[in-house]
Design goal:
The protein is α+β, with helices and mostly antiparallel strands. It contains seven helices and 19 strands. The protein folds into three domains: 115 residues, 60s Ribosomal Protein L30, Chain: A, CATH 3.30.1330; 121 residues, 2-Layer Sandwich (60s Ribosomal Protein L30, Chain: A), CATH 3.30.1330; 108 residues, 60s Ribosomal Protein L30, Chain: A (2-Layer Sandwich).
């Protein structure tokens, strides 16, 4: 993994960039873009962010890069999204979620990019997915799905049904082809239960049970721009792979099965390719292998235990934190930002990272993180990524 820090001084902004490639293979980038708060308006910060993105894409090494997905972390999604849409249209599947960046800015951006794919199609279906085709694989990234009718339970049912229909049109199913989901929940302390119930009911109906498998996921607080939307769904699916290329990560010495306490997701997923491996680590907090919150009320010790859990999941994938392409950190209490940002800067000074305000699904959890890791590998029985 190659890491680069770019200071775009004329925009008072910086880019944290990771890059991965194999000889002759597809190149992947993860970029986190930050703007310095300057007591300016959202429109001014967003304009600086856009110019920073343009400066990144103008670099020689990014000449062939195409954006696959974008996620904007906003301080006030309902008021800010209309201003963004009036300035420019997205060029890939995009989500906008109110999870305020805790560096004091109004907006931050995560971009995933690739170079070397055969085709990268945006708006390739009715949900505005990005579909990347290469070497017989089709990667389907779908961000920002919302509904506005009913409870969080009702909306989750609707979103999962709609997503299943999307995959059916692509010759895929949720059970066989979905690798990763994100559920952002308005007022997670009260609305998360409805999501959990609806997801479990839907999975039961499509044949996903503790004896088969679930799907890696993050379920976290976050406000969609649409005020009546209680849940926002993002997902990643793929076609063209063999079942044995996909494996699940458990780390049983440190974590229990989520089904033990009625929640239906996997702790992590490993995908093997001919030239590399990908690990998708679900939202992970300070929990033990009995499903109990560890170090209640202590942000430092919860952060350390969270790291330990993620390290164990990555170890099961024969990877380490040094293979992380990006990290997203979610905090319940803004007062913990100074401590946590210093801890991450000391431990992971080069990994693209964003720290946001987003309450975790249990009030006693003060922090959660997710990440994606990439490592070179040789699996001649599979096609290269």
């Amino acid at each position: 993994m190659e890491y680069t820090q770019l200071d775009i001084r004329e925009q008072a902004a910086r880019v944290e960039l990771s890059a991965f490639s194999t000889k002759g293979g597809t190149r992947e980038w993860h970029a986190i873009l930050h703007v310095e708060p300057q007591e300016d308006t959202f429109e001014e910060q967003y304009a600086r962010l856009c110019r920073t993105e343009e400066a990144l894409m103008a670099r020689e090494e990014m000449a062939g890069a195409k954006a696959v997905l974008k996620r904007y972390f906003l301080s006030d999604s309902t008021n800010q999204c209309p201003l963004m849409h009036s300035v420019r249209s997205p060029h890939c599947t995009t989500s906008y979620i109110q999870q305020p960046p805790l560096d004091g800015s109004r907006v931050a951006l995560w971009i995933y990019l690739q170079e070397g794919a055969d085709t990268v199609e945006y708006e390739a279906d009715t949900c505005g997915s990005t579909i990347v085709s290469h070497n017989g694989y089709r990667h389907i990234w779908t961000m920002g799905l919302v509904d506005t009718q009913g409870s969080s339970h009702d909306q989750t049912h609707t979103l999962l049904e709609r997503y299943g229909q999307l995959l059916t049109a692509q010759g895929a199913t949720v059970a066989d082809n979905c690798l990763r989901t994100w559920f952002f929940v308005r007022d997670v302390d009260t609305q998360y239960h409805g999501l959990v119930m609806a997801r479990r009911e839907h999975f039961d109906r499509i044949g996903l049970t503790p004896s088969t498998h679930y799907i890696s996921s993050t379920g976290i607080g976050g406000n969609p721009a649409e005020t009546k939307a209680l849940v926002q769904l993002g997902a990643y699916a793929m076609t063209g792979f063999l079942p044995e290329q996909q494996r699940y990560l458990y780390a049983p010495t440190h974590l229990n099965r989520t089904s033990d306490y009625g929640v239906t997701f996997e702790r992590g997923t490993l995908m093997l390719y001919g030239d590399r491996r990908h690990a998708y680590i679900s939202g992970t907090a300070s929990i033990d292998n009995h499903g109990e919150v560890v170090h209640v009320g202590d942000i430092r010790r919860q952060t350390l235990r969270m790291w330990e859990n993620v390290e164990q999941l990555l170890a099961e994938a024969d990877m380490t934190m040094e293979h992380c392409a990006h990290i997203i950190v979610y905090l319940r209490d803004t007062a913990d930002y100074t401590i946590v940002s210093r801890m991450f800067a000391e431990r992971f000074p080069s990994v693209p990272t964003v720290i946001t305000m987003a309450p975790v699904c249990r009030p006693a959890w003060l922090i959660e993180m997710e990440c994606m890791a990439i490592r070179e590998d040789k699996n001649p029985e599979y096609r290269a990524f």
